[in-house]
Design a protein that fits this description.
heterodimer; A: about 270 residues; alpha+beta; Sulfite Oxidase, Chain A, domain 2; five-stranded mixed beta sheet; five-stranded antiparallel beta sheet; elongated; B: alpha+beta; Fumarate Reductase Cytochrome B subunit; four-stranded antiparallel beta sheet; two-stranded antiparallel ribbon; globular
């Protein structure tokens, strides 16, 4: 009888020991997993593998949501009282400050690059073109959303005026705002973005000059900002300086197609 | 019953400890472990993404919506503190939520470094992890559901019988007493266990996926207004978080149960498939 009891207690203490061991092993494994993930996040090959899912995301999106599908539009009652601003709120760049202080009277939007008929447009000319007004939800990559009413000119018809060449694939927006000061390697840190020509021709893609029935405020990108309603906030370039049609963005700054893209964010901002 | 079998029977009874069943087939084991990896990565990277804007709302818009959970760091005379607001109540959560140390440095961040992938606050990298493993997670989940249906694992093992459902009271009582099933009863999943699995497989997992898809501006256009069925985009973000929290709760209980039921036996069965049926009664008839 006592022998059985002894065996039993022995087994119990054995089990307890094993349980402790296992718990320790779990904790160690957990820590190892997290350290491993941190190391992998800096491994270029691994990051490229992770980023390969982007192409899958875009292909899947094209299948389930047609390229012409419209972003949801809301009603006046849904509009937030103050539209949230993010990123640059007031560019300090000298050329921008000069324009801002004169009420953007001297502003001219240059559209060039791979086009047959490069042109310049004053704000007055742009405001005189047929306009579109839309109440849409702006979704930031950080996670917040804000509903606003935008008025502007559709980008597609505007681009048609300058006659894109067949080799043009992307629309490049060069902006006024420097993100982290001029850099020494000649690559300035001015914000820039690129979108595909198909996205540029979407009915809701605008160069907006009004927000909530008022002239676009400086904090939201005056005098012109892009609206690409089916992508995240960082694709909606503010403070647009010029537009260029390009065949590739490999040679532009970090080569990833946008300021935040160069910092590791996806070029396709639809997810 | 023929004589040869009745002769063998007492031998089997004398050595109940040797009774083993092949409990988990290879596809289930494989998909279970793929799921473990996916859930760990999805949770860690998800919390890093949450930290980029550590507030959750009900509604479509974060300006007009109603915040219900929020984390923040504050500098006070006594040093930096972490605060978490749930509804309209503030909790001090210094060191874990709102403010925690990153490499010894007090930092304002939602969830702490040890819970996020990557450990540093790095939204772009976290999104890369999250959106890659999301594919693995969903493909694995779809394969699992297809397997459970076509192999009849779903009907045979997961869906409780009418009798089992009638006896749910006893199962609850057994759980409260931490009493685990033995003998033939242990061959089948317990009714509460089955229900928990079904809620996870057909409730929480689809919910977490659908709410995740609702966060994509492009997928919002699949048909106009579908995200409003979830209460709007910010509500979808909240539900995505809550469904994930439900999954974490499930995993905690699941792992606790494994420890209570016998960690070696359970681990063996989910790695090799073989499960030892716990004896009906403790061994008493030890002969001198």
């Amino acid at each position: 009888m006592s022998a059985t009891k002894k065996t039993f207690t022995l087994m119990r203490s054995n089990q307890r020991e094993r349980r402790h061991l296992l718990r320790g092993a779990f904790a160690a494994a957990g820590a190892a997993v997290l350290t491993g993930c941190d190391k992998l996040s800096h491994n270029e090959g691994f990051v490229e593998t992770l980023k390969s899912a982007q192409r899958l995301n875009q292909a899947a999106a094209d299948i389930v949501a047609p390229r012409s599908a419209m972003a949801q539009e809301f009603t006046q009652a849904d509009v937030a009282p103050v539209f949230r601003s993010n990123g640059t709120l007031n560019p300090g760049d000298a050329d921008y400050v000069a324009l801002r202080d004169s009420g953007f009277a001297a502003y001219k939007l240059k559209i060039g690059g791979l086009v047959e008929a490069p042109a310049e447009f004053t704000l007055e000319q742009i405001r005189a073109m047929p306009a579109r007004t839309q109440i849409t939800r702006h979704d930031c990559v950080e996670g917040w959303s804000c509903i606003g009413k935008w008025k502007g000119v559709q980008l597609g018809p505007l681009l048609d005026q300058v006659k894109p060449k067949p080799e043009a694939k992307f629309v490049l927006f060069r902006c006024y705002d420097s993100m982290d000061g001029p850099s020494l390697d000649g690559k300035d840190s001015r914000y820039y973005e690129t979108i595909g020509l198909d996205e540029a021709h979407h009915a809701q893609t605008l160069l907006a000059y009004e927000l909530n029935d008022k002239a676009l405020p400086v904090s939201n990108g005056a005098p012109l900002r892009c609206r690409v309603e089916r992508q995240l906030g960082y694709k909606q370039a503010k403070y647009i300086r010029s537009i260029e049609l390009v065949a590739s963005f490999d040679a532009i700054r970090g080569g990833k197609g946008g300021y935040w893209e160069d910092e590791g964010y996806e070029w396709y901002g639809g997810i | 019953m023929d004589t040869s079998e009745s002769e063998r029977l007492p031998v089997a009874e004398a050595m109940p400890i040797a009774r083993r069943i092949y409990r988990h087939r290879l596809p289930v084991r494989l998909m279970h472990w793929i799921n473990v990896v996916c859930l760990v990565v999805m949770l860690g990277s998800g919390l890093n993404i949450f930290n980029a804007h550590p507030t959750l709302y009900w509604g479509n818009d974060s300006v007009t919506g109603t915040p219900w959970l929020s984390m923040r760091g504050e500098n006070t005379a006594a040093g930096p503190v972490g605060k978490t607001r749930l509804g309209s109540t503030d909790f001090t959560t210094t060191g874990v939520l709102g403010m925690s140390k990153v490499e010894g440095q007090a930092t304002s961040r939602g969830f702490p470094s040890w819970a996020t992938i990557p450990g540093t606050q790095w939204l772009a990298a976290a999104r890369n992890w999250h959106l890659f493993f999301a594919w693995l997670f969903v493909i694995n989940g779809v394969c699992y559901v297809a397997y459970t249906v076509f192999s009849r694992h779903l009907v045979r093992d997961l869906i409780p019988t009418r009798d089992e459902l009638k006896n749910i009271g006893r199962s609850i009582l057994d759980h409260v007493k931490f009493k685990h099933r033995t003998g033939d009863a242990a061959k089948r999943y317990d009714v509460l266990q089955s229900l928990a699995y079904l809620v996870v497989i057909f409730g929480l997992l689809p919910l977490v996926v659908v709410c995740g898809l609702a966060l994509s501006p492009r997928l919002n256009t699949v048909f106009t207004g579908w995200v409003d069925l979830l209460g709007g985009r910010q509500s979808a973000r909240s539900l995505h978080f809550l469904a994930a929290a439900g999954l974490v709760l499930f995993v905690i209980v699941h792992v606790a149960q494994v420890f209570i039921a016998g960690v070696w036996n359970e681990m063996r069965s989910i790695i090799t498939g073989w499960y030892r049926i716990p004896e009906d009664h403790p061994k008493q008839e030890v002969r001198p």
